[in-house]
Amino acid sequence: MATSTNEDRWSLLGALGALDEDEPVRPRTTRDWVVDIVAFLFALAWVFLTTMEELVWQEAADAGRIYGSAWLAWADLVPGLAMSVALWWRRSKSAMLAVICVPLGLFSAASGGAALIILFTVAVHRRFPVAAALTAANAAPGLVYAWARPDPGVGYWQTVAWIVGGSVILLLWGSLLRSRRLLVRSLRDRAERAESEQQLRVAQARQLERARIAREMHDVLAHRISLLSLHAGALEIRPDAPATEVAKAAGVIRASAHQALQDLREVIGVLREPAADGDPERPQPTLADLTTLVEESRAAGTRVALELPADGGNPPDMVGRTAYRLVQEGLTNARKHAPGALVTVTVGGAPGKGLSITVRNPAPVGGGASGIPGAGTGLVGLAERATLAGGRLDHRREPGGGFTLEAWLPWPTI
């Protein structure tokens, strides 16, 4: 029989502890310590004022109305002080403390201040059904206490209205604060998750752009090395060739080797990933292919005005490819987000001064607002490409709703 009683006791404590598992308790912050100290001092002040009031009331009351003597007021100090001290555990054991307050409400007025704080904590940190049940359970003994020991200056039903109304207000106030905290926490989690996803998309866009650049450089280097092999093979087959042809072939070999080394320097540090399929990629475009790109955009319905330098020479292939990709992405963005608008593409520069590219479009035709697309991974890829080429990229939204994409790429003199 004793074993059964002990098991029932432990199961009851376990059930009370389970009520406090709704929300994890975080470490106390400075603000929490201040709030807990204020709550503790408030509970102590309640105990002191309640005890003094009971002593004064009992001394002034008739002997027949006092069921007992002043020792009842002093005895009430014990549960009042105990529950005041228990407030330091209210964040982790609020539901259990609220259950303990139920029997105390039948005879202890001094513990009422601590009970109010505990019930408010339950409403803030626990689910509404649990908070409502514990609030009702604590209000019921208060009604019995008001009937057994009525206040001489206040009627019973007025006391009942105060107890019920105060309990409802306390419950709704705490539940509202809990809902607000949960909403703020949810919004913060969403913002952090969105930021993490954005960073992941940016990193993926950079990696994909690096992989694409590396594949392009692989094709270019393979082309140049094949030229070296071809001319070297020709010299090996015809060792008695005329001196002019030998000199010409040696010049081609030297120039190709120089360009191959230059391209190799540019691709150092770029990770290469295999292409998605086994088909060879088409020859990579250069600055000379901008005219074809613009004509294709015009055929697709985009209004494009192209300005090229009259006679600026041909930049290195790496610079030309990067410029082509920048213009291509700029036209794609303009076609998607400013349909019908006139897109102006300006390319200028010279050896030693660098190559400048500007793609500008006004607001969309029809008065619609021109917005920056989605996550902006296309612009991230362009910035990565320009950086790897030794240049820089800038993009901005114009006050009138247009969009401008500007880039500068180095153009060596040799």
Automatic annotation (TrEMBL):
SUPFAM superfamilies: ATPase domain of HSP90 chaperone/DNA topoisomerase II/histidine kinase. Keywords: ATP-binding, Kinase, Membrane, Nucleotide-binding, Phosphoprotein, Transferase, Transmembrane, Transmembrane helix, Two-component regulatory system. InterPro entries: HATPase_C_sf (IPR036890), Sensor_HK_TwoCompSys (IPR050482), Sig_transdc_His_kin_sub3_dim/P (IPR011712). Coiled coil: none annotated. Residues 209-274 form the Signal transduction histidine kinase subgroup 3 dimerisation and phosphoacceptor domain. It comes from the Bacteria. The keyword Nucleotide-binding applies. GO terms for cellular component: membrane. It is an enzyme of class 2 (transferase). It catalyses: ATP + protein L-histidine = ADP + protein N-phospho-L-histidine. Its EC number is 2.7.13.3. GO terms for molecular function: ATP binding; phosphorelay sensor kinase activity; protein dimerization activity. The chain crosses the membrane at residues 33-49, 70-89, 95-121, 128-148, 154-177. The keyword Hydrolase does not apply. This is histidine kinase. The lineage of its organism: Bacteria, Bacillati, Actinomycetota, Actinomycetes, Micromonosporales.
